[in-house]
């Protein structure tokens, strides 16, 4: 396996472990074990856990950009694209019920730790906020676009927290349906 492929495996394993167990509760040994590397080989790729966290955040940002580009290609209208974001809580409901939102849980944990990488992790929310704001501006309410983007972000985070707390799929569906009805009021 090439060094690049090994590094990508490490980042993918760390991402999954940070999501499932938290950043603080995931050790080098956990990540190395998940990839099947010795500690020496592991340290060749990453010198610190923060370096892995930085790579995980960068990978999440790249994955999110690709997802947003795909949504723009697949959904012909701004409302349709915003619904793709809203429906992510349905698409990922099993993981969300078990672990919460991957972005929300990471930023919350880093905030509690007063971790230096909190701002870096917050770029994930900023990416969603900017994209949603652009979609709302295209939809029409330009002056309210950022406010509406924040409303949709708050919706997704609230649903993720409650889904994780109560494991209630009917709740998730009801909330997505309510958000869909609300969004229809902004369509021309």
TrEMBL record:
Keywords on record: DNA-binding, Transcription, Transcription regulation
InterPro entries named among the record's database cross-references: Homeodomain-like_sf (IPR009057), HTH_TetR (IPR001647), Tet_transcr_reg_TetR-rel_C_sf (IPR036271)
DNA-binding region positions on the chain: 27-46
Domain HTH tetR-type: start-end pairs: 4-64
Entry-linked Gene3D superfamilies: Tetracycline Repressor, domain 2 (1.10.357.10)
Domain of life of the source: Bacteria
GO MF term list: DNA binding
Transmembrane regions listed in the UniProt entry: none
Pfam families reported in the protein's UniProt record: TetR_N (PF00440)
Protein name as it appears in the record: TetR/AcrR family transcriptional regulator
